[in-house]
Write a structure and sequence with these properties.
With about 725 residues, the chain is of the alpha+beta class. It is about 30% helix and about 20% strand. Strands 4, 5, 6, 7, 12, 20 and 21 form a 7-stranded mixed β-sheet that branches.
Length: about 725
């Protein structure tokens, strides 16, 4: 009992226990510390990687998206930079009171911005007067601003206005095969993660997105806890790989003219839709193609009117243009004798009666006259002579109900009903069978190319901008459904449709070449009732033409669906208003030797940014560029188009912008496309009249350009 109450002994025991516990803790610390030193990790987390995360910052080096050109090297779609306006309302980032970084005078700021963005001064003032907000944006009015507008705002020297760069895509030709070319826009998913990535959304931009977008690079920097780069901090850079450039088979001259013709007819006829495409049957190259409704890929105006690419996404009954294929099969099978006669009017087929479009026919006529008059009875008799199974084998050989493998999104294959004799008979004149324009025109290449059907394509070549390596599209023969002799015979029979007094296509004669044409009037199914329309003009009208007929260089196909305005003109006049001038111009280009196969001299544009104006012009001229336009009254170059290091052709117009006030250049003799480049650089709107080249400009050279005003330009 005495030992238990000994205080001295108790203290010694407690001391021993404390020393033991301390030793154990110290031992655990040594073990733990040694483990960390050896493994360099804590709770499974690598400490080196954690330090890198804390003090290393990486940034993306964006790749330049490839440029899309026409076959002559004229840009159709190219990278650009747009700017979004931001207003800074807080003074906490203003270190120098004499040079504030925030908005100080709200009245003046609102007054200045109202001059350059599409927003009333009162609304701007309301936005920048919000309490307890560090910074504000200005909605759509403050987004997608051009470099020219940005410069004008900055020249006002109003503090607190900053600009955020955003990659964008420029389509300098406006409406230009818009559904075929498509468009690229910022990827919404990437946007939410703070990245700005352009992604193809439609057409070529989408189909060839992997080639066009390239591969981004990366820059890595060591920073301290405040975000400053550490002295000697290592930067590891993975250089970006720019996207490939894509050259289309489109000819800008013909495409621009086609767009003008289609717009005129679309506004007059007021149809539900239209399609037109011009093709080289020897190679299958699409030289011009468009549709209505369409849209402007830069402004996105009218994009909601029609999302479908009507060239490939919508199939329809072609009507009598399909008889070209029926007659070709009959000639190949030896059952078409142009001089043998038959009784026109109507023919009984198991399951019903097939009649000619006028119901009574034209009496006893030859098969050639029947073809020229677009007789349904004639082609029904022809497929009965060759046999329904044989006729079906020809449809398959011509690619009917088979994808053309265009590479474009959502391509339709079409189909045909072929269970009963009446259904089989109807296919001979393009009813009960559906096709896309791509399919039908591809089939027609066999008629114009000695029996060889060529795969339609719209890509001429793909070029690596870094190495210059070209991947050229090689024309591809899909099949040979008919012989060369048959093809030549059908072409001659097509001239009967145009030049015989009883032919249905006399309106399509042109002055500079003999043509072969077949027209079509196809019934349409009313989507509400599921039955064919019964109105007088409720059809899909079309024309397919070949020229020059002795050795066709072009096939032109045009459709007009459900025109509403049939009082001033009939469908044939509307179609010929597109067909005749475009085919005439295409033939003229070929006769002059100005076809698109002419070799292009390509060079790289040097940078002249920050050069004195005179020196910049000298540099460009020494590199072979003579077509140079100057925007602005300053002496130093602040922007150029095309941008430096771009590969282009020597006759490309080079635009230079100086510091100081924006002034109007002399644009007489320029093309519409060149003037539109001025619009992109300055933000000024130009109103065009006519087509061709500039003969008059409303503002004289040297006049001040105001983004709020529009400038009238007359082309001829």
């Amino acid at each position: 009992m005495k030992d238990q109450n000994n205080p001295q002994k108790n203290r010694r025991n407690m001391t021993r226990v404390m020393m033991l516990l301390t030793g154990l803790v110290f031992l655990l610390f040594i073990v733990r510390f040694s483990t960390i030193m050896i493994t360099k990790s804590v709770n499974g987390e690598n400490l080196s990687e954690r330090i890198d995360d804390l003090y290393t910052r990486s940034s993306i080096l964006p790749a330049k998206r490839g440029t899309i050109y026409d076959i002559g090297g004229n840009p159709i779609a190219l990278d650009a930079t747009s700017y979004s306006l931001i207003g800074v309302l807080t003074d906490k980032w203003s270190e120098d009171k004499e040079k504030p970084n925030h908005i100080v005078d709200k009245e003046k700021t609102a007054e200045v911005l109202a001059k350059y963005i599409d927003m009333p001064r009162e609304e701007i003032y309301k936005i920048i007067s919000q309490p307890d907000v560090d910074q504000v944006e200005f909605g759509n009015a403050g987004s997608d601003l051009s470099y020219g507008v940005k410069m004008k705002i900055e020249e006002e020297n109003v503090p607190g206005l900053v600009f955020e760069e955003t990659p964008s895509r420029l389509y300098p030709n406006g409406i230009f095969a818009s559904h075929l070319v498509g468009y690229a826009a910022l990827d919404e998913e990437a946007k939410t993660e703070g990245e700005s990535v352009l992604t193809g959304q439609m057409g070529v931009e989408k189909a060839y997105d992997d080639l066009l977008k390239g591969v981004d690079g990366e820059a890595v920097q060591q920073q301290d806890s405040l975000g400053y780069v550490l002295p000697g901090g290592e930067m590891v850079v993975e250089e970006p790989t720019d996207g490939k450039d894509v050259y289309l088979t489109l000819d800008r001259r013909l495409q621009t003219y086609l767009e003008s013709l289609m717009t005129q007819v679309y506004e007059e006829a007021q149809p539900e839709s239209m399609v037109a495409m011009l093709v080289n049957p020897k190679t299958g190259a699409v030289m011009a193609a468009t549709q209505r409704p369409t849209f402007n890929a830069t402004t996105m105006e009218d994009i909601d009117l029609k999302w479908q690419n009507l060239l490939v996404e919508e199939s329809f009954e072609p009507g009598s243009t399909f008889k070209i294929l029926t007659v070709a099969a009959a000639v190949e099978e030896g059952v078409f004798n142009p001089h043998v006669t038959y009784q026109s009017g109507s023919i009984a087929v198991e399951g019903g009666i097939v009649s000619d479009y006028n119901k009574i026919g034209w009496g006893q006529i030859s098969y050639l006259e029947g073809f020229a008059r677009s007789s349904n009875v004639a082609v029904v008799k022809l497929i009965e002579l060759m046999g329904f199974d044989v006729w079906e084998s020809y449809m398959k050989a011509f690619g009917i109900a088979t994808s053309t493998n265009s590479g474009l999104d959502s391509e339709a294959t079409g189909n045909y009903n072929y269970d009963y004799p009446l259904e089989k008979a109807n296919t001979s004149f393009g009813q009960g069978v559906t096709v896309t324009p791509f399919q039908l025109v591809q089939a027609f290449t066999a008629i114009a190319n000695d029996g060889k059907m060529m795969k339609l394509h719209y890509i001429d070549k793909v070029v690596d901008p870094k190495t210059g390596k070209e991947t050229k599209t090689v024309p591809e023969e899909v099949s040979s459904p008919i012989s060369a002799e048959t093809a030549q015979s059908v072409l001659q029979y097509l001239t009967e449709v145009v030049y015989a007094e009883y032919g249905t296509a006399s309106a399509y004669q042109i002055d500079n070449a003999e043509v072969g044409v077949k027209t079509g009037t196809a019934e349409l199914v009313n989507p509400d009732s599921g039955r064919y329309y019964t109105g007088t003009y409720e059809y899909l009208y079309s024309t397919a033409g070949f020229a020059p007929i002795e050795d066709p260089e072009y096939i032109l196909y045009v459709t007009l669906k459900l025109p509403k305005n049939n009082e001033q003109k009939l469908f044939v006049d509307y179609l010929s208003d597109v067909f005749n001038p475009l085919m005439t111009r295409a033939i003229s280009y070929a006769e002059l030797g100005e076809d698109s196969d002419t070799p292009i001299t390509e060079v790289e544009i040097p940078s002249v940014i920050n050069e004195e104006k005179a020196a910049a012009i000298d540099v460009l001229q020494m590199n072979g560029f003579s077509a140079i336009g100057i925007i602005g009254n300053g002496s130093r170059i602040v922007q150029q188009f095309p941008v430096e290091d771009t590969t282009t052709i020597l006759n490309q117009k080079i635009l230079l912008m100086t510091e100081g006030a924006m002034t109007m250049p002399d644009v007489r003799g320029w093309s519409r496309d060149d003037v539109l480049k001025v619009a992109e650089m300055t933000g000024v709107t130009f109103e065009f009249e006519g087509e061709g080249y500039v003969v008059h400009q409303e503002l004289s050279e040297g006049s001040l350009l105001n983004p709020e005003d529009s400038v009238k330009i007359i082309l001829e």
